[in-house]
Fold this protein.
Amino acid sequence: MFVAPPHARGADTQDPEEPLAGRRLDRRRDLAALALLAERTRPVSSSQARVLPVAPPLGDLFPDGSLRRGTTIVVRGPGRGTDVDRVADGSISVALALLAAASGTGSWCALVGLDGLGAVAAHEAGIDLARLAVIPRPDVAWAEATAALIDGLDLVVLCPPFPPRQAMARRLVARARERRSVLVVVPGRAGWPEPPDLCLSVGEARWDGAGTGEGFLSRRRMTVTATGRRSAARARHHQLWLPSATGPVADADAAGPVGPVGPVGPVGPV
């Protein structure tokens, strides 16, 4: 259920209550282990900052040019919200890109419910793996696990494995606001019942590099639209390469050429 960097657990001792490889899942024990991780990774001074950085190509999508602490962001793609759609339509790519700059400056991040996401994909998105906790299959305890991570980490990306109830979603949003964390939700087919502070909508994505059938897909161009509440009420549009030819997110010139459309699916990093 739970994967964490070794130094987050303590270098010289092994907590007998920590989940180990091959040990059967135990809800109470595993949630206690998450709470311990949250306590050990709790920011000391950086939490006083009002915002967290984002990669420059993403800055135009946010009113402050940064991630505002205590907010909830929903990332939606043009698909139907299934696991396959979320990979193919670029919504997971956008969610991962939001973590890169913050993790590179010392912020702890977590991924909940992204079953099948590999370390290579996270690394190519620019995320510091030494500051990343992953719960790929949280099962029915997904909301409790997410709440425990929000308590001590700066950014948490959540792909709910089950349709969330409104009361459950409202509690997670309120917890992120109280703890000054950023909650990024990539909803499934059932959606996310609680209005977010900001919604990033991914438009149609086009792959470049396939040529007329030869070659390899090298980059994906997409339009991302940001809408939200208060200072984010005015819609913002930005074109991105995600992934770019070098991996991380990059600006896409609206007037630049776009190569032939390649097959969309589990090709290249998500």
Observations:
- The longest strand covers residues 219-228.
- DSSP finds seven helices and twelve strands in the chain.
- Residues 53 and 186 are 20 Å apart (CA to CA).
